[in-house]
Amino acid sequence: MLTAIFLPLILACFIPLISKWKYSIHTGWFVLIIPFSIFVYLIQQVGTRFSPFEKTYPWIPSMDIHFDLYLDGLSLLFGLLISGIGTLVVLYSIYYLHKSEQLGHFYLYLLMFMSAMFGVVFSDNVYVLYTFWELTSLSSFLLIGYWNHRKGSRYGALKSMLITVFGGLSMLGGLLLLTIVTDTTSIQEMISQKETIMNSPQFGWIIAFLFLGAFTKSAQFPFHIWLPDAMEAPTPVSAYLHSATMVKAGIFLIARFSPILSQSDWFFIIVSGFGILTLCWGSFMAVRQTDLKGILAYSTISQLGMIMAMLGFGTKIAVFAAVFHILNHATFKGSLFMVAGIVDHETGTRDIRKLGGLMTFMPITATLAFFGTFSMAGFPLPFLNGFYSKELFFDAALLHHFSVDGFAQLLKVIIPYLAVFGSIFTFVYSMYLVFGTFRGEYKEKELKTKPHEAPIGMLISPIVLVLGVIIIGLFPNLFNESFLAHAAQSIKGVEIHKKIKFWHGFNSIPLYMSLAVVAIGSILAYTRKRWSSVYNVIPGTLSFNRVYDWLVDKTTAYSEVVTESYMSGSLKHYVRYILIAILVVTFGTLWLTTDLTISNPDLASIGIPDMLVVSMMVIASVATIFTNNRIAAILILGVVGYGLAILFVIYRAPDLALTQLIIETVTVALFLLVFMHLPKLEKRNESKGTVFFNATVSILFGAMMTFVAIFSYSSKWFEPISDYFLETAVSLGGGHNVVNVILVDMRGLDTLFEIAVLGIAALGIYGMIKLRRDKGEK
Amino acid sequence: MSNLAVLPILIPLLSGIIAALMNRKQRAVRVFSTIMMLVNLGVTAYIGWYVFQNGPVILETGGWKAPYGIILVGDMLAILLVITTNIIGLACVFFAPKSLSEKQESFYFYTFFFMLISGVSGAFLTGDLFNLFVFFEVLLMASYGLITLGGEKVQFRESIKYVLINLFSSILFVTVVSFLYSVVGTVNMAQIADRVQDVEQKGILTTIGILLFFVFATKAAVFPLYYWLPKSYVVPNPVVSALFGALLTKVGIYSILRMFTIIFVHEVDLTHQLFLWLAALTMVFGVVGALSTNNIKLIVTYNIIPAVGFMLMGIGIFTEVSIAGTVYYLIHDMVVKGALFLLVGAIAYLAGTSDLRKMHGLIHHYPVIGWLFFIACITLAGIPPFSGFIGKILLLKGGLAQDQIFIVIIGLITSLLILFSMIRIFIQGFWGEKDESFQPDKPKARAFAWPIGFLVFFSVFLGVGAEFVYPIVDEISNTLLDPSIYIESVLKE
Amino acid sequence: MEIVTSILSGILFATGIYNLLQKQLLRIIIGTALMSHGAHLFILTMGKLKRGKPPIIVEGVENYVDPLPQALILTSIVISFGVTSFLLVLAYRASRLNGTDNMEELRGNENE
Q: Which residues in chain B are contacts of A180 at CB distance < 8 A?
């Protein structure tokens, strides 16, 4: 199985090489081998005696991340879909994509996706699952953007990525919560601890996070909006990713976790509620589409909703029907997408308004389309698999043996009606699709080229799928025991045996539901044009696309407004924000953690000379604010500096005093030198408010520093280490001036780098001055 | 063997001096710098291996025993960060000649560069608070030199704000060190930790801790203090931006990490709760900034800020998992930010503009740069299996385990918006119609691609090969949460 | 006396900050200089004032003032000298090139 996951990825690495020969052999032929061999491998597993098995390969064992690969009925079903449809899609694409396209890129992304999808369905480890999950989003992004010179492609790619990655991240949240609650990263082990999960306080969050992930991926209402835009991808991609496999990953996730989650009423309410809503919304919206692939996209949305709803019911029959429909949907929808691709390829348009009467030109394609659409519509014919799953769906929607109360009860009552409602429109758009394209009058003027039947190679894949439709229709129980039952069992946890029958007798309600669908559907389909205003009435302002566009637009717009508003580029503002933040938090902390009493610390006596110097410095420092003469300002600054030097003398720091004197002199000289060349000081013409604000902030900041200093001073709880320096300066340091000994010996590293700082400053200054000279010479 | 600890500081220092002396012969300086970076990377890698085998190397400089002299503490965390620094340095030294004009190179770029590496390594290695201040000054001074290199009008305009705000925080730094000295009577970090523990961080100590936090938070660009960052990181040459983006803010985060895991850990309810709030705000405002502009350099620069938020969040949550997340994220972010800054620099150079609205279809001309950018993008957004992912799940898991759902949701949304802000560059800049009239500079693109590819490779390795790194990070996290290990290894009680 | 010097340092900080909040570069730089004076005075104060002889070992003298803060200040003074000189030249170049020393005119909101 590890091979199954990584084989496509490994080949993907060689694609750039292989695609160099694309003009002699279409790259697709090499690619074809991969899904086909995996399909052959997986099909061998099918059988009544199949039992799940697990294999583990380490990846990051220290974080409990392993490739725990788990093959049970569910993953086998998906694995077969991925490899089977994958084979057909690659085959189809060989004829669909011309050699002049960037085939290398296409197959690279496609293989990457295949790997990722296998990874999603086979992983038992939640982290690995998430890894592959995001990889499917990424490859989908790249595939949708394959024709990235089109604006629509870029828009669709971004949209699908944002929505699915959003869901992916949310799912990550849910998975992380699960690992925390259960202390394991294996899904199977989580299932065995479902009681713990159910009872944990985070259960609500888990459900919310996981559902968000599943719903976005499976395009459930209201996150469905990305799927129609994803149709910008080449048709093989739409058939593969956006119909048969990737969009079912969300279904897979729900199915995988339903042994844990389905115990809760909320599971039913949310999953079925959103599922059935999606079913109705999707099928209703499909009717008003004009793009063939648009119809199919909305159809996919509604079918996914239907499967989701069945999973939400969680009854035996519903689960079985869901599994059955996953298979059926893949066959008929896959064939329909390919048909749409053929029509597009041969006529140059997918706009159904321009199409019509193609039956005569493309008889085989038309036949395929008839099978596909009638199956999708659930038309009661014994050789259409769609009918069987639709009947099962109705049966399940009646929700026998299902007792709930409260809101869930209400839901239970209306679900059958909604199911019929949704199915009616399914019928309508199916008929619209097939008749609009293949019957009616041929509109010659609208088409650039004369349509003709597709090459045989392109037809093989849809033919195979339609054969699947017919075979399942004729022998609905063919795969039952060997295959579907295993899948259903891994969802439900108990063995499920179900005989699928075409005829249940006259007293079965699903039959009447089906008949109602066909009858009302036929009328509506026939009179579709009259209703067109109704179809166009609802959305528009209600459209969730607008919500998305609005969100994206406003996010950037508001970001700009917000950022521009505080990133003014003004140093004054920046300093203010910083000071206020420091003031608020520091005073807050002082208030909370310090009892604001000053213990009586040991203080030095107040001397007269000290006080004189101090008052001089106070006056000088305040004077710097008021002076409007630059030389005066600099000299006053000098006064403060020299005052400090005198204080150093008074406080027994001769070295400091000396250094301070020298440096102050040099600095003042530098100040004078530089500012002789600068504009004169202007009078400060600030508003009173500004002055007051600045003054308050400054005073508060000064006060804060003083407070903290005094508190620190009065909390001398330990002997300073400097006694050691005094003791050892002579004996170990060999010097009598302790400060010097510290500087050159004990803290020599400081001094070394202090000199380095000076050196760098000198080089920087040199650079700035020299550069000016160079420019001056020009 | 303890002398090893000083080599990562000393080698760049000496190299910088020699480079300054050789300044006349630029070609020789280039070769010399490259060789010295390789040597330094080799030496640090060896130290890393040595520490991994034998435990931390602790050097008492000048033979003055702890806590009296300056102690260099080469523990696993410090060494790991020093190695990462050198990896980025190596990429930059290869990138520099292609990106800088000859004149810029001759104005002592390599000297400033080596001094920066020396200062950053010193800040990681030192075990002395005042010495940390000195190394901060070294790296800041070097960064002042680098930011003005080239002497453009805008550079001067932005660098003066940069210098002033950093100067302010430096002044605050020394002052706060002296307050702390007054209370605990020492500047040795291990001894400070020991003594703070003795009095259970009572009284004024928490306030001092908060002030110290603000000092580092200004360098680290935490929420209300990052205003200086975006514009000043855009104006210098790409290689300088890359050094800044990869290294400078991370030194701030590292210092917060050290201070608030070994020293100020006795008022967690107050301090670390504050960090969580600030982390959330940092993430939101940072990513909002990234969405606000069409200047690709500015987008990447703003993306520094949410990353800082993520790391601060790990410190705020303060569990083994979350601290491991912070450390992992720190390393990841250094590498990926280095790569991204080089990338946008290269893109802006190759496209002739850094305005996103004026670019399109570049992938047809520069496929390699485009794909490297794509990988770097998704790495930054934390999409698996790349490096951002590992750090992020650790952080989120840590948050969820502590019931901090709120910040986790903010983190998740931020990740999405980061991806949005970055992928915009890819979609608008790289995708789209091929511009036939455009004259691509392919040789230059190839020259740019190598050092960038080197960094992207490391970033991928940090994700896919997490098994080689994570156990070490986990060990680091364990050590950080037990201050006594650090204290005892330094003070040898 | 320590309280007095603490207050003085606080005043130096306050006036420094006030200058920092001005528009003209010269005032701003004067502000930083005032603040670093304040910082140095704080450091000295924190090591207790006038508790003995200057820290030059002379036989027979028992009490010396704390030498460590002095060493720290010395390092700090030199470093701030380096930074201030750099800043001065930078300010000079910046205002020359941009034609103004008013920081409010050096905002630069355009997208470069």
A: 397, 400-401
Residue (of B456, B314, B295) closest to B380 by Cα position: B456
Each residue of C32-81: pLDDT tens digit? 999 999 999 999 999 888 778 888 888 878 888 889 999 999 999 999 99
Cβ neighbours of A574 in B, within 8 Å: 161, 165, 227-228
| CB contact (8 A) between residue A559 and residue B288 | yes
Band (pLDDT 50/70/90 cuts) for residue A490 is confident
Q: Report helix, strand or coil for B343.
A: helix
Structural domain total, chain B: 1
Contact A708 B419 (CB under 8 A): no
For domain C2-105, the CATH class is mainly alpha
Which of B108, B132, B156, B296 best probes binding to C when mutated, by most C CB atoms within 10 angstroms? B156
Which of A568, A640, A651 best tests the C interface by mutation, with the highest count of C CBs <10 A? Answer: A651
More confidently predicted of A179 and A403? A179
Q: Are residues B424 and A155 in contact, defined by beta-carbon separation less than 8 angstroms?
A: no
Contact at CB, C2 and A614, closer than 8 angstroms: no
pLDDT over 70, % of chain A: 95
A709 touches chain C (CB under 8 A): yes
Judge contact between B135 and B70, C-beta under 8 A.
no
Least confident of A612-621, A675-684, B180-189: A675-684
Cα gap B369→B340, rounded to integer Å: 11
- Asked if C68's CB is within 8 angstroms of A576's CB, the reply is no
Q: How much is the average pLDDT of A287-306?
A: 89
Which residue is closest to C22 within chain A, CA to CA?
A: A572
Domain boundaries, given as residue ranges, for chain C: 2-105
Across-strand partners of A58?
A: A66
- Residues 6+ positions from A609 with CB-CB distance below 8 Å: A650
- Give the domain extent around B391: 2-491
% of chain B with per-residue pLDDT over 70: 100
Q: Above 70 in pLDDT, residue A703? A: yes
The CA distance from C32 to the nearest CA of chain B, in Å, is: 7
Whether ipTM tops 0.90, in short, is yes
Distance CA B454, CA B34 (A): 15
- Beta carbons of C39 and B294 less than 8 Å apart: no
Query: What is the arithmetic mean of pLDDT over A290-297?
Result: 88
Task: Extract the tokens encoding A164.
Answer: 């699915």
Contact A137, A165 (CB under 8 A): yes
Which residues have a Cβ under 8 Å from the Cβ of B328 and sit 6 or more positions away?
A: B387, B390, B391, B394, B462, B469, B470, B473
* Nearest-angstrom CA–CA distance, B458 and B449: 14
Which residues does chain C have within 8 Å of residue A617's beta carbon, measured at their own beta carbons? Answer: 8, 12
3-state SS, one letter per residue, for B443-488: HHHHHHHHHHHHHHHHHHHHHHCHHHHHHHHHHHHHHHHCHHHHHH
pLDDT tens, residue by residue, B218-257: 999 998 888 888 888 888 999 999 999 999 999 999 999 9
The confidence score (pLDDT) of residue B322 equals 94
Can you spell out the DSSP letters for A609-636?
HHHHHHHHHHHHHHHHHH---HHHHHHH
User: Domain map of chain A by residue range?
Assistant: 263-501, 718-778
pLDDT in tens, A609-622: 888 999 999 999 99
In this complex, which of A651, A679, A739 lies closest to C67 when CB atoms are compared?
A739
pLDDT digits (tens, 9 = 90+) for A209-260: 999 999 999 999 888 889 988 888 898 898 898 888 889 999 999 999 988 8
DSSP track, A443-474 = -TTT-SS---PPPHHHHHHHHHHHHHHHHHHH
Say yes or no: A580 contacts chain B, CB-CB below 8 A. yes
